[in-house]
Amino acid sequence: MRRSRKVIITAHCVLNQNTVFPGDARSTGIMKDAVEWIQAQGWGILQLPCPEFTFLGPDRPGMTYAQYDTPEYRRHCRRILEPFVEQLKVYRQHGYAIVGGMGIQSSPSCDPGRGVFMEELAAMLSEAGIAVDPWWQIPATESGQFDPQDPAARSRGSQAR
User: Fold this and answer.
1) Which of 22, 39, 85, 96 lies at a 20 to 30 A Cα distance from 45?
2) Does 1 reside within a domain?
3) Which pTM was predicted?
């Protein structure tokens, strides 16, 4: 079978809800609606690392954007994103399309429009000359139902600069 040569970037927890802050999980394992939609498009998934999990572990307290907006956390985000950005460069050098990204609405780190981690990713992508657009976001609802046709699911936040 022929590969699509198209890849979407996803927040870590789209594929692994076990890294989510306790009590905020939107599913028991994966975000099935989002993954099925990506699969239907024929795209590969490039999973971002989870910055909160790697910074504070699985039993971390709930924190806000302001609490994560520190030089130490931003350095951590950049450090764990370095190999990821290098991987994107390789994809681009070999003719792959980065078709967009997927984040988590209301996450202090992974909201595409206002998350600390996503801000650092946007800066690093800009520095590398890599444009990623559009961005979708998993809604901040208990069900976590993803509908790519819903205008609220589409984000043109910090990533679209």
Assistant:
1) 22
2) no
3) 0.88
Residue type, 67: Q
Closest CA to 12 of 138, 97, 140, 146: 138
Query: Which amino acid type is present at position 151?
Result: P
Judged by average pLDDT, the poorest of 35-39, 100-104, 127-131, 150-154 is 150-154
CB 132 within 8 A of CB 161: no
What φ, ψ does residue 18 adopt, rounded to 5°?
Answer: -70, -15
In a domain, 57, yes or no: yes
CA–CA separation, 100 vs 97, rounded Å?
9
Number of domains in the chain: 1
Residue 72: give the domain boundaries.
Answer: 6-160
Two tokens at 21?
Answer: 């802050």
